[in-house]
Design goal:
179 residues, Lipocalin, 2 helices, 10 strands
Length: 179
């Protein structure tokens, strides 16, 4: 049995292209991301167990705008749990959904994390969420908060919640621009 496609009404290709052009033009949220470009020294604190002191480690993040100012590419190196750590991420702002979207990959996992969330009212920070089936703890919801305090200081915080449990602060990273 063959399927037939309904004949579409005549489309206004020029009007459609204008919508795509408008949505494909970097805006104010992309300017926030561009302020995060540069070389940053990092201090990371990771809480491995609730109630225990965090592990601390230093590192470096190289961040640059790519694809005509559409996305911020992040490459980080440092140490985690006594071993060398490398990670790569991309963050963009989707003008259509009005959300920041991010991916993250690193040398401690084979997963690709996907986060999304809105800009905050202050215009200098955004909160994103992700879900991931952790191999040890099971399904979890993650929440990250990225704040640009000024042109030379920013922070990133990560919180995790096992489904049905309490949110726990997992990690914080303080960025200081390399001079």
């Amino acid at each position: 049995m063959a399927t037939e496609r309904k004949r579409e009404e005549k489309r206004d290709i020029e009007a459609e292209m204008e919508v795509y052009k408008k949505l494909g033009t970097p805006g104010e949220a992309h300017k926030l991301l561009s302020r995060m470009a540069g070389t940053w020294n990092t201090l990371t604190r990771s809480w491995m167990e609730p109630g225990k002191p965090p592990e601390e480690s230093a590192g470096v993040c190289e961040q640059r705008m790519v694809l005509g100012g559409h996305y911020l590419q992040q490459e980080c190196t440092g140490e985690m749990m006594g071993t060398q750590f490398t990670g790569i991420g991309f963050t963009g702002y989707d003008n259509h959904t009005r959300k920041f979207v991010s991916t993250w990959m690193d040398s401690t996992s084979t997963a690709i994390w996907y986060f999304e969330g809105p800009i905050e009212a202050d215009g200098k920070s955004f909160t994103q969420k992700s879900r991931y089936d952790d191999p040890v703890r099971g399904p979890m919801e993650w929440r990250s908060v990225c704040r640009l305090q000024d042109d030379n200081t920013m922070s990133f915080e990560m919180y995790g919640t096992v489904l049905g449990g309490q949110e726990e602060k997992m990690m914080e990273m303080k960025y200081t621009r390399k001079q």
